[in-house]
């Protein structure tokens, strides 16, 4: 399982860095030091497709694969999910700190100055 | 039995009413967050048991003068093929209310736990896929996102997640303090502490005290994690990190979350730690144990 997860990562890296959609053969070529069989790559691709991370287009006899969203878009979606405090939708336990109101932010800026002063003052 | 029922009902009302209303405002909670957390857990469990016990006591009153004895007699008759246990229609309805209420509380908890585990697993697999390792000597994953965020995913294969925005915000010592805070959550399984409060506040939206208790517990858990992080990190450094984080992440609109356990309170608490009080700690734990003993005693003791 760990190996499959690691392969999924590598394949996604290839897809994200490719300027356009690629074939399974392209992926094998792009990962030369892994010595992959084309069937292995196809397995990984179908797993990624099931997870809605990869889309497939038909191109003659071959299939071309492309990521459904950029890495940044996925990161943004994860952030929304992590910071969503709705009762049981939140996957994360809690963010390091909750968001603060503008009023609280002003007081916090004062506290920050005090904290920095004490830290640098050796107190 | 009347005395038992009235006592239990009173206990539930007092705990869900004034106690849950006043406890979040108690200034001393900041000095002993861990013991206060234990008290909240005892209040939740005791109030639930008392409310269920009160309804059940009235329902089975005709069967015996102790709640335990009456429930046992009911169970015996039920097994012997007498579905109402010899109770009249009104008492049967009341007993069903107690059973349904108890089943609902447990069911909501189980459902919430299952959903959380599922959402967390999905989230973790995505983080593993798109995150990059923090550094060679520090465990953690980095998401490429400008907004500063740091959080943890508890469970069997826990993760600490930071955004690139957070990495830009902190210096090295602050980063270590933030990681220590998140690991404290993981080590103490704070997700399990928070779970019932989150589940029941979602299930009982018409009970504002449950929502208030959830907010209070969330804040206390953060303070406990701050304290544990400070075993490894300097308090002032963690205070800096926290204040920096709070001032950086201000949304343009007023998207402010609930104010309890506020960042400001935590920063002040780190800079000027309130004196710890063993006496207060023992008092809180004693009250917690007593609260749990009360409904248990009511189950066994005979009333008038």
UniProtKB/TrEMBL annotation, chain A:
UniProt keyword Transcription, yes or no: yes
Keyword Transcription regulation in the entry? The reply is yes
Q: Which GO terms describe its biological process?
A: negative regulation of DNA-templated transcription
Extract the SUPFAM superfamilies matched here. Winged helix' DNA-binding domain
InterPro entries noted in UniProt: BlaI_family, WH-like_DNA-bd_sf, WH_DNA-bd_sf
GO molecular function annotation: DNA binding
Q: Which UniProt keywords apply?
A: DNA-binding, Transcription, Transcription regulation
Q: Which family does it belong to?
A: Belongs to the BlaI transcriptional regulatory family.
What is the name of this protein? Answer: Transcriptional regulator
Q: Identify the species of origin.
A: Actinocatenispora rupis
């Amino acid at each position: 399982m760990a190996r499959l997860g690691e392969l999924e990562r590598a394949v996604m890296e290839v897809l994200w860095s490719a300027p356009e959609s690629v074939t399974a053969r392209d992926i094998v070529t792009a990962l030369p030091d892994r010595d992959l069989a084309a069937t292995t790559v196809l397995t990984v691709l179908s797993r990624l497709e099931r997870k809605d991370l990869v889309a497939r287009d038909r191109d003659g006899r071959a299939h071309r694969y492309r990521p459904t969203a950029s890495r940044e878009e996925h990161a943004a979606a994860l952030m929304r999910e992590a910071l969503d405090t709705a009762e049981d939708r939140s996957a994360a336990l809690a963010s390091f700190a909750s968001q603060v109101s503008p009023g609280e932010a002003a007081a916090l800026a004062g506290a920050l100055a005090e904290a920095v002063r004490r830290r640098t003052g050796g107190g | 039995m009347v005395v038992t029922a009235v006592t239990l009902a009173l206990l539930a009302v007092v705990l869900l009413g004034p106690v849950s209303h006043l406890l979040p405002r108690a200034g001393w909670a900041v000095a002993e967050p861990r013991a206060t957390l234990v008290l909240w857990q005892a209040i939740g469990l005791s109030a639930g048991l008392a409310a269920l016990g009160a309804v059940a006591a009235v329902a089975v009153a005709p069967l015996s003068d102790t709640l335990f004895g009456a429930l046992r007699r009911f169970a015996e008759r039920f097994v012997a093929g007498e579905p109402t246990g010899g109770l009249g229609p009104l008492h049967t309805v009341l007993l069903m209310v107690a059973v349904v209420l108890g089943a609902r509380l447990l069911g909501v908890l189980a459902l919430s736990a299952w959903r959380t585990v599922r959402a967390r697993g999905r989230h973790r697999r995505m983080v593993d896929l798109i995150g990059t390792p923090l550094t060679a000597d520090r465990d953690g994953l980095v998401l490429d996102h400008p907004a500063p965020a740091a959080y943890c995913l508890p469970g069997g294969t826990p993760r600490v997640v930071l955004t690139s925005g957070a990495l830009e915000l902190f210096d090295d010592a602050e980063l270590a303090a933030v990681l220590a805070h998140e690991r404290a959550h993981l080590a103490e399984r704070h997700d399990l502490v928070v779970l019932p409060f989150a589940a029941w506040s979602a299930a009982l939206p018409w009970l504002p005290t449950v929502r208030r208790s959830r907010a209070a517990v969330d804040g206390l858990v953060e303070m406990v994690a701050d304290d544990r992080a400070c075993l490894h990190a300097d308090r002032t450094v963690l205070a800096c990190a926290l204040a920096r984080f709070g001032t950086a992440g201000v949304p343009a609109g007023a998207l402010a979350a609930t104010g309890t356990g506020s960042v400001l309170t935590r920063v002040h608490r780190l800079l000027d730690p309130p004196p710890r009080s063993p006496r207060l700690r023992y008092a809180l734990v004693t009250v917690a144990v007593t609260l749990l003993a009360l409904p248990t005693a009511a189950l066994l003791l005979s009333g008038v």
